[in-house]
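Page 47, continued from p. 46.
Same chain as before, 260 aa.
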Amino acid sequence: MRNEFVYQVFALLIAFIVVHALYVTLIRPNAQVHIEAERVLIQADSNHVEQRSLYVVLRDYEQEACFVLMIWALFILGYKGVLVSRQQVLLGKDLLELPPDLPIGREDLRGLSQRIQALPHWEQDALLPRAMLTAVERFGATSSVQDVSTASRNVCESEAERLESELSIIRYIAWAIPSVGFIGTVRGIGDALGQAHRAVEGDITGVTQSLGVAFNSTFIALVISIILMFFIHQLQLKQDRLVLDTERYVDRWFVRRLKV
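Result:
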């Protein structure tokens, strides 16, 4: 948990540095050049239709904050996705190292427990070895197949709840991104209202720019939120599959072979 927290902090710093550097060196300078060029064209030809630019759409602070949050969330999603993938690899291994057709009796439990406990540390912390070790120990204590099945299922259910709770930070980010976009909307509309007297006098440049801030920030925030929610659901799907596959693994390779 401590390593994950440190990773999240550094991921946020890296996301901020990269995005801010991109905005300072590329997006805002190009946006300013485009705005000045369009202003000259409008002054030369009052019928000129202003061309939209992606740099102008992205240039405000709310969009920058949204991209920082998105990259931060993607770092966290990648980290958790790698952990799940490493655990899924264990589902392809034979942890028991017994002949497939050999029934498992109480005399085999000591050897099975030692094999599981001899795994590398990170593998012992994975879901499958923990569920398997719990099942082995429960059968040694009760000799009840029903108790073994219940114990392993409880381990899987508690792991599913833990994985779900650890997604809370990512869901918070996914909620915060549209909120940041709405902040830009409020700021843009407020600026536009503050320049309403200029629009009455015939100068609508300031009003249109402020309304552009309002709409652009909301647009970018919603697009980023849609993309981020897709990756969140993909990670949740992988986690759910890990839990279900672990339950089936324990049931197939241990519970069904128990000899009472």
